[in-house]
């Protein structure tokens, strides 16, 4: 199982771009990388998922270098409502089973 | 939006009581998971299931037990609640393909 390491916390201001990097040095060949956002007293919710290179959706971008040993979640122009904990999860494809183990997460604080 | 439901949302109970936390999903997902999360801390996997009659222990030792008699239902039981069981319990399910985990909103348990 790939162990993930993220910064414990980050601070930002409204309107800035925020980049959160996750290290996963022992990622397996078929593992996918998924990022989740969690607000207090709620379950995590999906943000974005990728395997390699770059993925973009309406809320974020995910950058994965060629060696796949890290990934960076990019949040453009954050607002106060983006204050939350962000987790990266590295996991095998569905048919390969395996436990889904989360790392510590990054607590993002967006200030006005 | 995924349909995964947890009840109760909040529970305050005395030491020694038996409790069951309910988790149901209507998506027909085979894989389901229970995580335990203390305030401000990471998610810890305590149980998971790959389908009916399949249950496995997660990475964090837990005195709770689970059952999976029906695909849609994955209840967690504590035979004798203790104050050390005070925590948030999050249930999740996983669909086939590369779909992400879908989480419920959790049950916040307080044992007095």
Describe the structure.
The complex is a heterodimer of chains A (112) and B (112). Chain A has strands at residues 9-13, 18-23, 32-38, 45-50, 53-56, 61-64, 70-75, 84-91, 106-111. Chain A is mostly beta strands. The N and C termini of chain A lie far apart (39 Å). By secondary structure, chain B is mainly beta. Chain B has a single domain (4-111), classed as Immunoglobulins (Immunoglobulin-like). In chain B, 0% of the residues lie in helices and 49% in strands. Chain B has strands spanning 4-7, 10-13, 19-25, 31-37, 44-51, 54-57, 65-66, 76-78, 87-94, 101-103, 107-111. In chain B, the strands form two sheets. In chain B, strands 2, 4, 5, 6, 9, 10 and 11 form a seven-stranded mixed sheet that branches. Chain B has a four-stranded antiparallel sheet with strand order 1-3-8-7, with no helix packed on it. At the A-B interface, β3 and β4 of A face β4, β5, β9 and β10 of B.
CATH architecture of chain B: Sandwich
| CATH third-tier fold name of chain A | Immunoglobulin-like
Main sheet makeup of chain B = 7 strands, mixed
By oligomeric state, this entry counts as heterodimer
β-sheet strand percentage of chain A: over 45%
> How would you sum up the global shape of chain B?
globular
Strand runs of chain B, count: 11
């Amino acid at each position: 199982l790939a162990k993930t390491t993220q910064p414990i916390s980050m601070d930002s201001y409204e309107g800035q771009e925020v980049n959160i990097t996750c290290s996963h040095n022992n990622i397996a060949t078929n593992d996918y990388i998924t990022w989740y956002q969690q607000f207090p007293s709620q379950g995590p919710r999906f943000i974005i998922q990728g395997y390699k290179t770059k993925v973009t959706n309406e809320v974020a971008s995910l950058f994965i270098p060629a060696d796949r040993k890290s990934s960076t979640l990019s949040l453009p122009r954050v607002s106060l409502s983006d204050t939350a904990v962000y987790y990266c999860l590295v996991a095998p494809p569905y048919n390969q089973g395996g436990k889904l183990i989360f790392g510590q997460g990054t607590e993002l604080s967006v200030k006005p | 939006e995924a349909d995964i439901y947890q009840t109760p949302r909040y529970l305050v109970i005395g030491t020694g009581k038996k409790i069951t936390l309910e988790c149901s999903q209507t998506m027909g997902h085979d894989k389901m998971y229970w995580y335990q999360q203390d305030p401000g801390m990471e998610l810890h996997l305590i149980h998971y299931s790959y389908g009916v009659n399949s249950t496995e222990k997660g990475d964090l030792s837990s005195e709770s037990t689970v059952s999976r008699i029906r695909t849609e239902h994955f209840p967690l039981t504590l035979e004798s609640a203790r104050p050390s069981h005070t925590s948030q319990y999050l249930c999740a399910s996983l669909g086939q393909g590369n779909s992400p985990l879908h989480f419920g909103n959790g049950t916040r348990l307080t044992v007095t």
